[in-house]
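Thread: sanity check for a docking pose with zinc ion

Original post by kr_44:
Hi all, I'm comparing my docking run against an independent structure prediction. Below are the sequence and the ligand SMILES. Could someone generate the full complex and paste the C-alpha cells? I mainly care about where the ligand ends up relative to the chain.
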Amino acid sequence: MIRTYKCRVKLSKSGHETLSQIFGMSAELYNAGLESRIDCYRKTGESRSLYDQYKELVQVRADLPEYEAVSSIVFRGVLSRLDKAYKSFFRRVKAKEKAGFPRWKNRRRWRTIEINDQCWRMLKKQGDKLVLKIKGLPRIEVRPSRELPPNNLLKAIRITRKPVRTEVALSYELPTPEAKPLSNPVGIDMGISKRLTLSDGETVEKREIDRKKIIRLQRSVSRKVKGSNNWRKAVSLLAKEWQRVSDKERDYLHRLTAEIARMYDFIAVEKLKTKNMLRNTNLAKSIQEQTWGKFITLLDEKAESAGGKMVEVDPGGTSQECSNCGATVKKSLSVRVHRCSCGYEADRDVNAAINILHRGLTIAGGNVTRMAGRMRERQADVGPVRPRTVYGCVN
Ligand SMILES: [Zn+2]
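Reply from moderator J.T.:
Ran it for you. Here is the predicted complex with zinc ion included:
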C-alpha cells in the first residue's frame, strides 16, 4: 500500500534558482534521450532500453561537468519518465487507442524532479528539522503536516514547482493492514443539492467555497494588458488565491474522508462516469464532479488504511428503485420523498443511499437477499433503517 504525503518546503532564493537550472537540464536530457531512441530505431530498427539509456547517461556525465555535479539518481528519474512515456505509447498503440508519441519537452515548463531510488538516504533529521539532501540540489527543508512513517519505507520523492510554491511529495510503502470482518457498512449518495446522504440517514451538508474573490481576480487579469507588469502581478495574485482555495478544499476532504473511514468499515459509493465528465461543459457541475472524484480517491485510501473496504457501484436508477421491495418508483427531481406502494416511505436520498449499499454488498458477495428480508422487518417498525445493525454478518 503506497501512501503519499505532500509537504510544504522552505527553500532559499538561490535554492529556487538552482532548482530551475536542474529542471532545464532535465528537459534537455529528456529530449536528448528521446532523440537517441528515435535515432537508434531509424538506424537499426531496434528500440533502446532504459538500461541502455542509463549507460548513455554515464557518458553524458563524463562529458558535461554540470551533469556530473548533480546526483545521477535525479537524471535516472528523467530517463525512467521517458521510458514510461514510451511504454504507455506502445501500450496504447497495441490497444488501438488514440496514441500520441512522446513529445519534446520545453525546458521552461519542466517542473518536477522524481527520485525512485535510495530515497531513505536523502531525507535526514537535522535537530528538529527534516531536510532533503541530494547531491547538486539545494538544501530543502521539508515541513510535513502529519507525522511521517519511518524513513526505511520511503520509496519515492517528488519535488514539484507549483505556481505559488514548491512542494515535496513523499511516497511510502506501508504494510497493508489486515482486513477485519466487516460490521459497519454504509452507502453514500451524492445528491443534486451537492450534499452527501448516508444510508443510515446521516447527511453532510454542501460546503460552499467562496469563489467570489477568484472571479474578481480573474476579471482583473483580463482587464490588464497581457505581458505587462500589472498583468503579471494580477496573474500571481490569482494563482495564490487558487492555491489557497484548493488547499482548503483538500484539507476539508482529508478530514471528511478520515471521519467516514473511522465510522464505517464497508463503504459503497457511486461510480463516476468519466465519459460524461469529459463532455461536460457546465463549470459548476464539473467542479462538483472533480471534488467527488477526489473524495472517492481519498476515501478509498483512508478505508484501506483503516482495514476497511470501499466499492464503487453503477449509479443508474438508484433514486427510482425502492430499497425495500425493488420496484421502480418514477419520480422527478423535485420529489424529495420516496413513497412506494409496498408501504415503504423514506427521504429520496436515503432510499438511494440504501440502494447503493445493496449494490455494493452484492459486489462484495454479501448475502443480500437474506439481509434484505431482515431489513424489511425492521423497516416495518422503525422507519428508515440503520444498516449497521442489520448487516452484522457481512464479510
Ligand atoms: Zn417498495
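The first strand starts at residue 2 and ends at 10. Hope that helps with the comparison, let us know if your pose agrees.
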